[in-house]
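in:
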């Protein structure tokens, strides 16, 4: 077995990426404070052709050297928009026909492995602050809460890990 060289991976150019068909998914970051987490979400969003990333509240925006360190240029390929308040972003999404899912542990949440998605619909996932999670007023606006089942002693995952799991899952369900 031989590792492939970067030149053998046949990746899209940034221009081709921008013109490519996207997964009908927008990622919303609700007051995410770590620039490394923001960069990681951009990179994962690029990998699975997410439509856009919405950056809300204290979440930093490109251009930023710390975001670039983990995004590796994905902040230049993935569309993004900044909102001072997350509820404003959710209002826009709902007005544009998106089903908005808070990724949060909540009463009545749907476990990710039990989630059913409609390929004809557009979705948005809201990921919360590293300490406080998704704000309650934002959870209240969402169509549903989706939870990642966990079986160890900890009750949470890093926001960029959560993003990777959920984006991959939505990509799998919406593009096959």
């Amino acid at each position: 077995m031989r590792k492939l060289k970067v030149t053998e991976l046949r990746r899209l150019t940034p221009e081709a990426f921008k013109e490519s068909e996207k997964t009908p998914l927008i990622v919303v970051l609700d007051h995410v404070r770590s620039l490394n987490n923001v960069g990681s979400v951009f990179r994962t969003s690029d990998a699975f052709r997410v439509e856009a990333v919405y950056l809300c509240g204290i979440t930093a925006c490109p251009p930023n050297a710390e975001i670039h360190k983990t995004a590796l240029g994905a902040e230049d390929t993935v569309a993004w928009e900044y909102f001072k308040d997350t509820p404003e972003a959710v209002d826009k999404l709902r007005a544009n026909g998106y089903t908005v899912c808070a990724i949060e542990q909540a009463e009545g949440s749907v476990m990710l492995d039990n989630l059913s998605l409609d390929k004809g619909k557009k979705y948005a996932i809201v990921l919360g602050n590293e300490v406080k999670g998704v704000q309650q007023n934002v959870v209240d606006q969402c169509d549903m809460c989706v939870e990642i089942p966990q079986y160890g002693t900890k009750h949470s995952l890093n926001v960029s890990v959560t993003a990777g799991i959920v984006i991959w899952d939505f990509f799998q369900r919406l593009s096959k």
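note: The first helix runs from residue 14 to 19.
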